[in-house]
Amino acid sequence: FLFRGIPHSDISVQADGASVDSDRRYDAETLTLQVTVADVSTRSEIRVTIGDTTMAADPRMEDVFDILRHAEMRYLTKEQAYAAIAENGIDALATMDSLEHVSGPDMEDCSDSHMPSAVRQALTEVLLRS
Asked: What is the C-alpha end-to-end distance of the chain, expressed in Å?
């Protein structure tokens, strides 16, 4: 059994009403909890009960930060992109074009801003993943 977004928590497994042992593995990268039951007939009714738990931490903002930290672009643009994503989440993708600003041909103005398409694509991939 695979459960997305649920960290390792209080789980009980029953087969035909009797408690059975299970193996649990949590993959923090995919936010997936895998519960495996062995030596149970495929005809058995299996019930997995998940006790009190919290949702797994969403690593998207950490991934966004990592992408922007390594991007070769102006700090101002990084800061504006991160703030937009932190405030608006996936809806911030629509505002990325507004970060483009060039004051003149020499691009020496401190307010100049440009986001390379590769960075925009990487951010899109992170924000659209389920």
From this structure: 18
Contact partners, residue 99, CB within 8 Å, separation at least 6: 77, 80, 81, 84, 113, 114, 115
Sign (positive or negative) of CA dihedral 69, 90, 118, 79 = negative
Residue 113 is given by DSSP the state B
The secondary structure of residue 55, as a DSSP letter, is P
Would you call 4 helix, strand, or coil by DSSP?
A: strand
pLDDT greater than 80 at residue 126? yes
Q: Which residues contact 120 (CB under 8 A, 6 or more apart)?
A: 96
- 23 forms beta bridges with 36
**Confidence class for position 79, pLDDT limits 50, 70, 90:** very high
